[in-house]
Request: fold
Amino acid sequence: MSERYSRQELFVPIGKEGQEKIRQKHVLVIGAGALGTGSAESLVRMGVGKLTIVDRDYVEWSNLQRQQLYDEEDAKQRVPKAIAAHKRLSQLNSEVEIHGLVQDVSATEAEQLIRDVDLIMDATDNFDTRMILNDVAQKYNIPWIYGACVGSYGLSYSIIPGKTPCLNCLLETVPIGGLTCDTAGIISPAVQMVVAYQITEALKILVEDDCSLRNQLISFDLWKNQHTSIIVDQLKKQSCPSCGDHPTYPYLEHQSQSKVAVLCGRDTVQIRPSHRITVDLENVANLLSKQADSVVRNPYLVSFKMGDFRLVLFKDGRALIHGTKNIEEAKSFYYRYLG
Ligand SMILES: [Zn+2]
Reply:
């Protein structure tokens, strides 16, 4: 397989030695939307040893414009993104050990996922998960690369525990909130640009070329022709609860995790069962086929319509209720049909 990575090995800062380092690394990609599919494809093609990609959602038609690992069949079948991504990534490079996990990432999952991971790629679409990643990265001393985009705007920053400020340090100074909803739309070059910044930093980390790391928070608006780099070194706080002298990792506090959440920017409520269960999807689909519309079942989920709502139930009992932002309404719907 010497040809496969030859162009990457010819690039002097990587070389054969760097390629071998890449092959020994395990990268965790959190989220398999636009940023996650872009990152994962690059990492798998570049020959990372092991890649784990985690996502809680399934492929919809509105994803195909920018989420590069998916096709029309995935949208028709409502295939979970982690499964569809795993399938496509395996076709791209059979040398890589790939794991696709259909799950929501709260603090508990994050601490389990982090084991033996060398680098975390942020490809989430929500702020809560990012703050969990930030804490877990600090606690276990793992670098992570923040990335976000909306419209034609994007930003990225590499967070190295013990060296750079963390996301929590930047919260009050840098406009990183409110960037996560998909209500404003998005164009694919904004995604590709963030992925390019994230993956370049990832390569530097994987080949251990720390001196070349960017050290600046980068932001851009491709439509408005604006590019900005902000030096943020001074923002590292000794009193930071995530990376300071006496960290408490506030986002890993298990009691602070809600089991029911409105998904950002969407008319969707997610409900997680309070303990681990395994749902017999076939049984549920059979029961529902008598009373619900548009029942779709695949090995990972059942989806059905009832009035204005559409409910998607995953094997682990987690449900997405589309058509409402009202938690009480969503809960009563969930327990009426699945309780
Ligand atoms: Zn901090």
Remarks:
- The longest helix spans residues 188-206.
- The two ends are 53 Å apart (CA to CA).
